[in-house]
Fold this protein.
Amino acid sequence: MIRAREERKTEGRHPTMKRRELLSAIALLALAAPSLKAAETVRIANVIELSGNGATVGNMWKNAVEMAVEEINAAGGILGRTIEITHFDTQSNPGVSRAAVQKALDLDPYVVLGPIYSSSTKVNMQLTRQAGVPQIVGSEASVITEMGNPFVFRTSLSQAASMPKLANYIRDGIGARSVAVLWVNNDFGRGGRDAFVAEMEKRGIKVVADISSEVGQSDFAADVVKIRQAAPDAAFVYLHEEESARFLREARKQGLDIPLIGETTLLNQKVIELAGEAANGVRGHVGLSADAPLPSIAAFRDKFVARYDTTPDHNAIKGYLAVYTVKEITERIGGFDRQAFADALHCATITLDEEPGILIDTSWDAKGDVDRVSFLAEVVDGRQKIVGTLPPLGVSCD
Amino acid sequence: MSDVLQLLLAGLATGAIYALAAAGFALLWQTARTINFAQGEFVMLPAFFVLAGTEWLGLPLGLAILLALVLALLVLGFLFKRAIVDPLLSQGVLPVVIATIAVGILLKESVKEFYSAEAQPFPSLVPGGTLDLAGAVLSLQDIAVLAVAGLAILAMQLFLGRTRLGRMMQATAQNPEVAVILGIPTRRMVLYTFLLNAALVTLASILISPVYLAKFDNGETLGLIAFIAAIVGGFNQIRGAIAGGFLVGVVDNFGAAYLSSDYRTGILLLLLIAVILLRPHGLWGRTEERTV
């Protein structure tokens, strides 16, 4: 009887213990689940101009980033991890961009993408540098990579690389002996103006008008009159996209009849859409173009149009290849080590054969500057037409 | 000399658009004691009504503009008066001012949210091309804008000064109590004033958006300049506000061309400060007096 009672006691305890063990196991699993989930994803922060004067360029970048992220995740992610992308709006304001990057860093991202506006990048890249987080930007001001920041990397040619090519075109292609310069008064515009004027001086081309304008400026009537007063052979226009469109409309309205030369921003597809017929005849140098004579870029353009019902511009190409740069370099280093990523991207070259998502063979130098082929273009009948291809300058990693 | 002519014409053309917005400012103040700090956004919004008509509803441009006018009259005229101004006016000027600031933010953010944060091309109703005059290359578009806006201002002045309805609106603005005694339906006159302002800002929007592009934050610049124009010209005189608009357009252009394009807004603000200090009722405004 005693044994029976003991057995009954044992029988009574056994299911309870089993239940307790089961409950403990479930609790452990529940606690472990978030970290298991986190181990399966990699966080990337996209800090970009989603509103304000830069909304046009920022939304192009963002849409292309999302497209790249979806493609990579659909193909298995990066080293088996799904990319978790979070967007932060800089409002095209440097102060806000700094706060946005801080907020992004609070999420402990692997890499930060953006912004595009150089004034914003200049301010917020101090934070990513302090945090040791690589930052892949769309900015073009030369100063970005001259501040000794080992964690910042470009997606487009810097002004220091573009302006010599453009200057040669003005001298040899246009045959201009005098130019007027119209530039936007911020880091991007000032840097471009300084680099451009220096190149003009080297080639003996006189700068007969040097006109600054404001970010977001709406009325360019006085600027067009000033250019006409100076009677240059050509005008170099270095503004942001919306301002470029407004200027072109005003120039057409007032019958300004000299070659209008620009860089990638002036010949941007969005500028062409906004300026309409006023953009026809604009010429210049473009570092990246959705109309580049490359099958990879044509395929990207078709995908983008099918998805977003709008033609991508160079900012979309930059955003797209930024994500694939993260993928390729991470796969090369075999892990998610930020310092190793930065070290590996310096002096790296990614070719189309290695990673088709890069869209165009690209090299980075020791400062994070990009080197690749670039193009001469002209706007004809509302489309950017590539009229020449220029070779890379050749990076130095000594 | 040719450059002066070009700058003058361009300044007058832009100034005419500012004059439309500034006249609306003055109208609302005089008739309803309303300082509308959303006036810039009022000029921004009708362009998006037009774009919504053409892009979303597939309407031809003419019909879209008509739709925009109807919507502007309804939203910026009738609804604005009934929902915002009427309930708050008895509380004094300050609550109305604060409410209009909020309305401006609401309109701006609504366009950004429901249409786009990016600039949009806007079709021009007036032809392109240039005219050579005394060596100056004059834009036909500027001439047309000046003509259209000028005609609208003239029509408004004739309406207010030469029609029975216009005179009743003026009487309501000058002395609402006496107007009531005279049997003028003052509440209806005030409503007509709001509707007239809605029509003015719609015209200003259609004329300026081809040049400025249609964008949700256009109101910030336009509102500031319209406010400066109204104060400089004379807030209590519609003619003053109109003249202020033209003056500001010309000063802005000449200042940018011959003084500094970096500080063009600063030049206008200096003008504003000078007028407030030296002639606070505006260059063409009426001296305001009250019995002590």
Notes: The two ends of chain B are 53 Å apart (CA to CA). Chain B has one domain: 2-216.
